[in-house]
Amino acid sequence: MSINYVLNKIGLIMIPVLGWNLIVFIPKIILKKNENGYFETVLGSLIQKGFFFQFWFLGALIIMLFLVPILNKIMKSSIKLYVIVLIIFLIISWLIDLYNHFSGAIPLQKNVIQTFRVWTWISYYMSGGLIGNLIKKINFIDFKKQLNYFSVVLTVLTIIYSIYNAAWISNPFAEYNYDNILIFIWIVTIFLTCISTTKFSKHSTKIIESISKYSFGIYIVHVIALKIFEKVFVFDGIFINLITIIGVFLISWLITFVISKIPYVNKLVIF
Fold this sequence. Notes:
Order of helices and strands: HHHHHHHHH
Radius of gyration: 20 Å
Helix content: over 70%
Shape: globular
Distance between the termini: 18 Å
Largest sheet: none
Strand content: under 5%
């Protein structure tokens, strides 16, 4: 986890960021509709501005990468200290979520763009590190049945929670749920359920590997696919929203697959 590792990862992240912004920036220059310079546009996308506002996630990832050597050093020196730091950030995240639900005010996170909600990203990142450490000591396969049952129960609870959540926190956007303890435990449980599964069918394995391989590209182009759906459908019900989620995912997957087959250009969608 050296500085060279961090800089190499950031370099790989910036290739698609620079490339996609250039694709949008050139037509704006030709049509004389560019309001900002190119590098200002690139920086803006990393802090949730402009056409590729979803690059906030990559901006957050860059911040986390700079913290990786520190977090890794804490884990190597003292796993107890690592757990204490993790618990502190988890408590901060969950207290913010509880405030959102019981205060009746707008979510606290609304005052901080997603790139800089570091308390949330550290909570998830460090939890992943702790799970990775525990995998070496605990055989989660032994808890496969319990995890499967727990995953089903949590999934049902999460669906119920999601239906009523917009009213509870006065905002329908999923970004304000990342700090929720139910969502957090649900995500961790699904992850543990997956790693405890010893056997997938050949067909299922191919699908999982494909989704994994193209997930980075799917995330990037899903906003483009969503804009297409917005021109066709009116999002006014659970059914149409479900169709939209599935449709956007499949279209994004197809676009990513096609781009991934083009030499050099594939760097835009494969990390």
